[in-house]
């Protein structure tokens, strides 16, 4: 890890809004030499002081470096890495006065996709970081209970999932993912696609009476766009103070046809126009939606769980809730 020492008294800008950026980067995902040149050019053009640099590691994917950046006086943290790095840094940054900017460098780049940020233009992403405007979004918090009854707390920005998507991620070959990107997920999807096991769980949404349910997959989304222009949750918004719960309950091939039709055709095509949105149907038997701010769920047994596209082991229960308006993101200005 490298960093540049800077006295807060030397920061340029007005007295009420000091400017100091830090890069938290994943060395596996980023060409650090090329990135340094681009950062220097953009920080100079924007009149910012020298940027601080913090490296993640396998043992600390972002929380520690982000905290060090904040302690060093950073008012903006630019995350250079994949979805896991973004999630880890946001876990430390949310609830502070520090803003977050994205330099997408992974396979999925889920949050950047939902914000319609540039995915493969480093200079443009850095220009947004140094010269963009702030957008306040919600953060989902989750307590995951393990089989040994221990509980660990995390934040997530895009989606949490139990069932097919979590099993798929657990079966994804990391080496193949690095070489072939989303083809690795396709291979993993095929591997678990024949799994017809169900999730059995009890749940309480928004403090309502407890209910029982059997389902193939359950996902809790803070936003709803996935790669390949798939709109899993077309009405989800990062700043609406609520999450959307999606439950997949396919019964045979017909159920999967319902799901594909709903997600690909209705959500992905019809929802793009005002007229098309009027033609959308409600829930179908195989795919149900709900909205909430708190969900408590207990499973019949241990199940794989994922957060923002990363596997998080197995869970026997969870509690997830919204921390509304707790994270500031840097986005393009209105005239860009």
UniProtKB/TrEMBL annotation:
It comes from Cryobacterium sinapicolor. InterPro entries: ATP-NAD_kinase_N, Diacylglycerol_kinase_cat_dom, Lipid_Phosphate_FormReg, NAD/diacylglycerol_kinase_sf, YegS/DAGK_C. Keywords: ATP-binding, Kinase, Lipid biosynthesis, Lipid metabolism, Nucleotide-binding, Phospholipid biosynthesis, Phospholipid metabolism, Transferase. One of its GO terms (molecular function) is kinase activity. Residues 16-146 form the DAGKc domain. It comes from the Bacteria. SUPFAM superfamilies: NAD kinase/diacylglycerol kinase-like. Its cofactor is Mg(2+). This is Diacylglycerol kinase. Belongs to the diacylglycerol/lipid kinase family.
